[in-house]
Amino acid sequence: MQAQATVPSKSSSKGSKRRLRFLMIFVLCFMSWAGVNIWGQFAKLHEKRSVVANLEQQLVEAGKLNDQTKKELSRLHDDEYLEQIIRRDFHYTKNGETPLSVSKSQ
């Protein structure tokens, strides 16, 4: 009777080792898959962070340009400033004034 009692315990021991080995292989495969996916996500995250930093820099530059444009727009309501722009850009002179042209020599 003892011989029969030890025989079933050996077969159940083999089965449990086989299940444990299968479970370990499954866990190892799952962890490998998860590691590869996480590594890929870190690469994408780094790329997206650089894109966001670039866009934030463009936003700052656009904000500065917007402020300059608003300042210029408010200055355009001043008659003296308009006169300066007309004289500078269009070489406008008043009656009786003699225009002077200065050439830059190097």
UniProtKB/TrEMBL annotation:
<keyword id="KW-0472">Membrane</keyword>
<protein>
    <submittedName>
        <fullName>Septum formation initiator family protein</fullName>
    </submittedName>
</protein>
<keyword id="KW-1133">Transmembrane helix</keyword>
<dbReference type="Pfam" id="PF04977">
    <property type="entry name" value="DivIC"/>
</dbReference>
<feature type="transmembrane region" description="Helical">
    <location>
        <begin position="20"/>
        <end position="40"/>
    </location>
</feature>
<dbReference type="GO" id="GO:0051301">
    <property type="term" value="P:cell division"/>
</dbReference>
<dbReference type="InterPro" id="IPR007060">
    <property type="entry name" value="FtsL/DivIC"/>
</dbReference>
<keyword id="KW-0812">Transmembrane</keyword>
<dbReference type="InterPro" id="IPR039076">
    <property type="entry name" value="DivIC"/>
</dbReference>
